[in-house]
């Protein structure tokens, strides 16, 4: 078997890349370890920046996102019981974000791929990548107990943080930068109307919480919990009670509770692997970097990585390697700005068990400055809606 680009992973990175390449007439096969149902069952991101929205339009999968996604022109910071609105549109010359679940986006991309007859091998086991330091890379995998080998021009490692692609790079060729936070987010999804039209990011003495949504009838809430917490110990009632304690009376008067559709704990981590290219292997999305979800940047970074990669590969097949040669540097500039923003938001809004009292006072003063200064709010808004793209 042979293809031009072998894509490992059918999350948002792999699926968007596949779509962009197909539209440019480049042949690609996606290998995914899980079943389509499993991939769709993972409840993750909810907020799309304009660059991601534009890219999904370019990939030909934006129709339902525009019809059903919720444009948001601002969000609220609830700090020790007081609300401060970040007017995204007003502070950024009219920019907005769209709230549209990663699950829905993934569904749209899967359907477009199936409709175009493009090949995805689900339940591809024991995927391994070979000879990407030469001119003829190969990918091996096992499907239904049978071994296969696929020759290709390039390998796109879109296989997430725990994937095989980054792990296959020799240790001396790659540098990891990492920060692990001493807490996670316990998330709950419910078919109840959201507590507010806009997202609420709340900082309280009991820890951070976030009120988000998927639609006018489906809510997504998160509360900060220590890493030692187990999801089994959190009944729905206990979750709602803890959330209430982290909201203001205005929110509590509107909060509608109900049975959870999903509940899980996600640990928070900042991580970057450099570089992102190794010969004919390119890493993209969570395979190369992780951000804590506080800044809503993970899915957006995945989208901008594959935008840059698709352009580079298309240029390659038209005769120039300039795009793929700059892939890693171009992506990393944007990634580090998003890493900085996500780390900063996390630091400002969460309770850390070991912060020294001086540092805590300084952080409180910084947050006070941010919400009461036009320059501070503008900084937060322009990073949240997404920095301009540098080609
Ligand atoms: P994914 O989605 O992890 O997909 C990788 C795919 O690769 C497959 N795979 C393999 N396939 C073959 N062989 C192997 N050896 C393989 N190993 C793995 C996996 O099964 C999987 O299908 O990575 P991708 O495509 O790079 O996408 C990244 C995003 O999923 C992620 O960044 C976001 O979900 C992060 N995120 C958010 N991002 C935002 O932009 N806005 C948000 O509001 C936001 N909220 C969130 C989030 C992530 C969260 N969690 C749970 C980590 C909220 C949460 C709670
Ligand atoms: C979500 O809706 O899942 C969500 C929204 C904003 C974030 C993180 C997650 O910052």
Could you give a short description of this structure?
This protein is α+β, with helices and mostly antiparallel strands and 391 residues long.
How would you characterize this protein structure?
The chain is of the alpha+beta class and 391 residues long. The two termini are 34 Å apart. α1 runs parallel beside α6 and α1 (12-23) runs parallel beside α9 (298-317). It has an eight-stranded mixed β-sheet, sandwiched between helices. Strands 8-2-1-12-19-18 form a six-stranded mixed β-sheet. Strands 3-7-4 form a three-stranded antiparallel β-sheet. It has a domain at 5-52 and 101-177 and 269-353: 3-Layer(bba) Sandwich (FAD/NAD(P)-binding domain), CATH 3.50.50. It is 37% helix and 28% strand. The chain contains twelve helices and 20 strands.
Helix content: 25-40%
Cofactors, ions, other ligands:
8-demethyl-8-dimethylamino-flavin-adenine-dinucleotide, P-hydroxybenzoic acid
Radius of gyration: 21 Å
What structural class should be given to the helix and strand makeup? alpha+beta
**Tell me about the biggest sheet?**
8 strands, mixed
Report the uncertain regions.
none
Strand order of the largest sheet: 6-5-14-15-16-13-17-20
Q: Report the CATH superfamily of the domain at 5-52 and 101-177 and 269-353.
A: FAD/NAD(P)-binding domain
What is the averaged pLDDT score? 97
CATH class of the domain at 5-52 and 101-177 and 269-353: Alpha Beta
Q: Architecture of the domain at 5-52 and 101-177 and 269-353, according to CATH?
A: 3-Layer(bba) Sandwich
Kindly estimate the percentage of residues that lie in beta strands according to DSSP.
25-35%
| Number of E-state strands | 20
Indicate the CATH topology of the domain at 5-52 and 101-177 and 269-353.
FAD/NAD(P)-binding domain
Number of helical regions: 12
Q: Can you tell me the overall shape?
A: globular
User: How widely separated are the two ends?
Assistant: 34 Å
């Amino acid at each position: 078997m042979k293809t031009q680009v072998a894509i490992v992973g059918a999350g948002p990175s792999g699926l968007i890349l596949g779509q962009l390449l197909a539209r440019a007439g480049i042949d690609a096969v996606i290998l995914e370890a899980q079943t389509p149902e499993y991939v769709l069952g993972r409840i993750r991101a909810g907020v799309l920046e304009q660059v991601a929205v534009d890219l999904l339009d370019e990939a030909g999968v934006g129709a339902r996102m525009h019809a059903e996604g919720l444009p948001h022109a601002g969000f609220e910071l609830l700090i020790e019981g007081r609300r401060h609105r970040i007017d995204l549109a007003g502070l950024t010359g009219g920019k907005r974000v769209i709230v549209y679940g990663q699950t829905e986006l993934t569904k749209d991309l899967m359907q477009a791929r199936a409709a175009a007859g493009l090949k995805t091998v689900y339940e591809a086991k024991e995927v391994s990548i070979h000879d990407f330091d030469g001119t003829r890379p190969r990918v091996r995998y096992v499907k239904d107990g049978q071994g296969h080998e696929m020759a290709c021009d390039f390998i796109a490692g879109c296989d997430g943080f725990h994937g095989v692609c980054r792990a296959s790079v020799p240790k001396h060729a790659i540098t990891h930068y990492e920060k692990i936070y001493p807490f996670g987010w316990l998330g709950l999804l419910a078919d109840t109307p959201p507590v507010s039209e806009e997202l609420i990011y709340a900082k309280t003495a009991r820890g951070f919480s976030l009120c988000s949504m998927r639609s006018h009838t489906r809510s997504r809430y998160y509360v900060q919990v220590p890493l030692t917490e187990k999801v089994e110990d959190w009944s729905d009632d206990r979750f709602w009670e803890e959330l209430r304690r982290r909201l203001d009376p205005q929110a509590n008067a509107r909060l509608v509770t109900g049975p959870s559709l999903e509940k899980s704990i996600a640990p928070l981590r900042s991580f970057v692997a450099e570089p992102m290219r190794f010969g004919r292997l390119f890493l993209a999305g969570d395979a190369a970097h992780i951000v804590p979800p506080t800044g809503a940047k993970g899915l957006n970074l995945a989208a901008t990585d594959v935008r840059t990669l698709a352009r580079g590969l298309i240029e390659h097949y038209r005769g120039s390697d300039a795009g793929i040669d700059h892939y890693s540097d171009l992506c990393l500039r944007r990634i580090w700005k998003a890493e900085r923003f996500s780390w900063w938001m996390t630091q400002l809004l969460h309770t850390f068990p070991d912060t020294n009292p001086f540092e805590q006072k300084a952080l409180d003063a910084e947050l006070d400055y941010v919400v009461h200064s036009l320059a501070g709010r503008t900084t937060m808004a322009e990073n949240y809606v997404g920095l301009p793209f540098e080609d």
